[in-house]
Amino acid sequence: MTSTRIASHLMAAVGLATLASTGRIAAPLLIAGGCGVLASLAVDALRIERRIPAALLNSLILLALGVAIAEYLWTSHTLLHVGAHLLVLLMFTRLRHADAREYLQFVVIVFLQVLASAGLTSNSAFAVWFAAYLVVMVWVLMQYHAMEEAERSPAAEPCPGLGRWAVTAALGALIVTGLLFVSLPRMGFGLLAATPPADVQLIGFAPQVEVGSLGSLKRDPTVVMRVSGETLAENPLREPLYLRGAVFDAFNGRSWLNTAPVRRSLPLDGERRFVLERVQPRFDVYTVKSEPIDVPVIFTPSRTAAVAGPFSAVTVDDQRTFAMPYATHARTTYQIWQRPAAQATPESEGSSERMERYLVVDGSARLARLARETAGENTPAAQAKAIERFLKRHYAYTLDVPAPVGAPIDDFLFRRRSGFCEHFASAMVLMLRAVGIPSRLVNGFLVQEWNEYGAYYLVRQGDAHAWVEAYLPERGWVRFDPTPSGLPADRPWTGSVEHYLDHLRSSWDRYVVEFGLGDQSDALQRIEREWEAARNHLTAWGPNAAASWRTLRDAAAGGWPIALVAVGLLGIAALGWRRWRHGRPRGHTGGLRVEFYARLLRALAGRGVSKPESSTPWEFTTGEAAGLPWIGEIRHITGCYYRIRYGGEGLAPAERQAIERALAMIERAPKI
Amino acid sequence: MKVTPVGIRYLLLSLAVGLAAVNTANNLLYLLFAMMLSLVLVSGLLSERALRRLSATRTLPGRAFADEPLSYRLTLANGKRFMPGFFLRLRESAGGLRITAPELVCPRLEPGTQIEFDATLTFHDRGLHHLDGIDVTTAFPFGLFEKTYRVPAAAQTLVYPSIRRVASPMPRPGAEDRGVEGRRGVEGLHHLREYHVGDDPRYIHWKHSARRATLIVREPERETSRTVALVFSNRLPPDPLPIHSEWFEEAVRLTASLASQAIQDGCDVVVATWNGIHPVGRGRPHLERVLRTLATIVPSPPAPGDRLIPWALARPAPAPHLILVWDDPAWSRIRPLCERVWVIAQRGQSEREP
User: Fold this and answer.
1) What angle do CA B105, B107, B110 make, to 5 degrees?
2) Do A118 and B31 touch (CB under 8 A)?
3) Are A665 and A630 in contact (CB under 8 A)?
4) Which residues of A touch B141 (CB under 8 A)?
5) Alpha helices in B25-146 (DSSP H)
6) How far apart (Å, rounded) are the C-alpha atoms in residues A138 and B83?
7) Closest partner residue to A173 among B22, B33, B39, by Cβ?
């Protein structure tokens, strides 16, 4: 099988893999494509020379076009999908190329596959296949050129051994691609950008949520957000971070409702932050990178004072939940300023009418009795703690919750006695209300999975959580989490490997998919700063060097020794440079590498036999040295000397050792 | 650098991807666009490297005939330490010359090695031609761009006029050449002289050669000797047209062909032009001398004291062959006396058959 064939099949495989990495190409087509590539490879491996008839190829092209048209009319949603499917089919019409022209067509088809993949996905898997594609493409283009040259000059010999240079060129191209990618100006405004559907569909953040709806998310490992911040990086094992999404103040027996009347827009401050409270320097700052979600909720921790991000507006209701006007359906990065817990101040809720809605109980008498028995006659804070403790201790956590019999909370409390966070939190809210403590249910995310590689918290769908906020007269709204603590048993995705891969995905998204004009501007400013620093350093170096020089000159008796040393060093450097430039070191032949011959002459002179100046080394072996007992060794050493001195050859380690042994023997011998 | 047709398509495709990236703000398209541009850069860099430190030597004979393929040996060496030269195409750098030189192909030239080609080269014009070097072209690595580097390999060759078969200009029987009577006699040694290109090696006198440390040949006497006088009027009309240059070249070719044919027929040949009169001679060495003169001859401007016409008038028998570029009236008195007159302006047809 020729390397051209191997290259083209490898390229076909990479093209298919790139399409597969989008996750949007029909699996049967990809499987069929893979089988086709393998079959074609097998044909080459078995050296079956039979060509596919042109009529069959043309029929295949027509069939592919027909399938594409039919798919576009009845099945597929976008032209891009249809095009990608068509390219898979067309690839096989040129996979078994006969000449350079068909080979080039094949290369273009696979390139279009990669292009279509770039339009269909922003998945980090694309990075892997893109790199593979670049390497293979360089090789394939070289093969194409070789094929073209062979067709142009049939008499010329083939040119093997392009692979090593292809890899070298590909590595160079990868580096240059990275540099160009960073430096190409991002002038695009996305006028023709396709709007992808929201990747993550969240449940539990609508104005009305049925109890138990979060259960379907708890086993979903899909990443929703990544949360980072200096406070988190310094102490990743601090108390869990609760990101609030939706707050519900009313319960109708089966569903929670948000009856917060009005949302008000937050004003912008001078630093383009949407401010709820005045931001102070000591506030904790979090950065949230949110995947595309289908709800306009801005997830924030409690005590959030301000939010900044690519929002046209930010609204907040009287339960301090933040929202944007509409779901962006795109990756969004925003920052949050949180007032520290030490600065907590009781939040004024205004009139008692507004608090009454947090006291409405729609529970059974049994529930009220249980609440009173559990809470006892304590302060509200102690009552709330008692109820939280009671639920944590006496109820079990499970995600396998069947449909409730009757009222879901009564079913949880008195019959099943197990459930997940929503059941615990709903039960606690109702129990708190039953003992007269204003309370509300909060749906959001419990941030607890620390990614040690990227220094951020991973927030998954499975981290969706419900908890309770109770209003305590002395402390304001206080969070209670009655759900038994600890990671759920069914979270198999939290390993180190997965974290590392997520870090790579996150980096890919940050530095490739979302790389923009702002990043380029930041990079330029950073380079400018570095350059300024380097220049200052150099400017400072001049006077420092001059001062050092004066010190050295004063220390030495006059400046000449230093000057001589400097000149000597410069000379050595120049010689080294010259030797490096000219490759073959001349000194090797006349100096170090033939030192052994000078040593031989010294050894022989020490034994009373000197080589006359007028004799050549060989004449010496046949003349004065001919009668010596070590003439064999002398001839061997002389032969080696000739080889090096005039033949420009080197010595093998074994030869060097043999010379060393012979010289040692001669040097040890007594004087003649 | 030249962009190949495939390169043009590649650049257009790159442009389309770049436009798509700008219009969609899709960074993955920017990535692909960057990749395509990087391949252009890598291509330029590798082709540049592939052509660096190449050297060529060419062994050209000192003389050649116009329109006749000339065989020579061309050596191309790669002086690089690491990188081979890939897909090298070699072609003689023509400069302003009209030459035909088939392209030579070297698929791969390892570093530190050299390759020899048996090449052919055809000059289409006579004269002393200087060749500058060899144009080495490669489209490595992707065939998108062709880069050419001129490897210096200076050489010069004297190109004689092309010789064609013509009717023998040998004098008719009875028209004796009285100028060389002294050389007639029986076959024997006429004199010794230095060897010239074209001499028959069988006539080398080895003893004399060894004594004088240079090649000496014997000039044999011949039983009979006939002389052909060729008078070439290398003069153009006062206001020449471009066609006169072509006719001039045709006249040179005719003169060379007549001289060659005469020498081939064993005649002594004397060639006279406005530039001077070549002494009478015979054999290949004499032909070489005549051809050397004709290789570099140019139209001669009128000058006072020109001696060609008086020489032709005074010339003893046999009558000369007169070659005229145009119907020059200056020769009207002499033309009747000539053996044969050729006026090239009349498409090479002889004006008057004797």
Assistant:
1) 120
2) yes
3) yes
4) 138, 141-142, 145, 165-166, 169
5) 27-51
6) 17
7) B39
B302 or A298, greater pLDDT: A298
Q: How far is A127 from chain B (nearest CA, A)?
A: 9
Q: What angle do CA A534, A540, A545 make, to 5 degrees?
A: 115
Interface test with A, best of B13, B19, B39, B88 (most A CBs within 10 A): B39
Backbone angles phi, psi at A615, to 5 degrees: -95, 145
CA-nearest of B86, B88, B59 to B75 is B59
CB-CB under 8 Å, A192 with B143: no
> Which positions ≥6 away from A616 have C-beta within 8 Å?
none
pLDDT exceeds 50 at position B180: no
DSSP output for B188-245: SEEEEEE--TT--GGGB-HHHHHHHTS-EEEEE--S---EEEEEEE----SS--HHHH
In chain B, residues with a C-beta closer than 8 Å to the C-beta of A167 are none
Confidence of residue B353 (pLDDT cuts 50, 70, 90): very low
CA distance A436 to A426: 15
User: Which pLDDT value is given to residue B81?
Assistant: 87
Q: What is the pLDDT of residues B242-258, one digit of tens each?
A: 888 999 999 999 999 99
**How close, in Å, is residue B95 to chain A by CA atoms?**
25
Q: Where are the alpha helices (DSSP H) in chain B?
A: 5-24, 27-51, 206-212, 242-264, 283-296, 308-314
Kindly identify which residue of chain A lies nearest to residue B9, measuring between CA atoms.
Answer: A108
Q: With pLDDT > 90 as the criterion, what percentage of chain A qualifies?
A: 21
| Rounded-to-integer distance, Cα A245 and Cα A411, Å | 26
CA-derived radius of gyration, chain A? 40
Joined tokens for residue A98: 């006969």
The pLDDT, as a whole number, for residue A592 is 43
pLDDT score of B349: 47
d(CA B291, CA B264): 14
State the pairing for strand pair A476-480/B63-65: unpaired
Which residues 261-280 of B are in CB contact (within 8 Å) with A? none
**Residue whose pair of structure tokens reads 């891969």 in the numeric block:** A501
Residues 577-596 of A with CB under 8 A from B: 583
Interface test with A, best of B9, B11, B14, B27 (most A CBs within 10 A): B27
Q: Using N-to-C axis directions, what is the helix angle for A163-183 and A125-152, rounded to 10°?
A: 130
Chain B residue with Cα closest to A164: B83
Residues 347-386 of A with CB under 8 A from B: none
Q: Which of B111, B136, B145 is nearest to B42 (CA)?
A: B145
Among A324-333, A342-351, A376-385, A401-410, the range scoring the smallest mean pLDDT is A342-351
Type of residue at A59:
S
pLDDT digits over A556-600, tens only? 655 566 677 778 888 888 877 766 665 443 333 334 467 888 889
Chain B interface test: which of A113, A177, A509, A514 (most B C-beta within 10 Å): A177
Q: Judge: B13–A156 Cβ closer than 8 Å, yes or no.
A: no
For chains A and B, count residue pairs whose Cβ atoms are closer than 8 Å: 138
For A148, the closest of B26, B29, B143 (CB atoms) is B143
- Of chain B, the end-to-end C-alpha distance in Å amounts to 61
Q: Check if B115 contacts A (Cβ < 8 Å).
A: no
CA distance A181 to chain B (A): 5
Torsion of CA A71, A75, A77, A81, to 10 degrees: -40
Q: CA-CA distance, B233 to B321, in Å (whole number)?
A: 11
Residue A82's Cβ-count burial label (10 Å; 0-12, 13-18, 19+) is buried
Structure tokens at A453: 């590689």
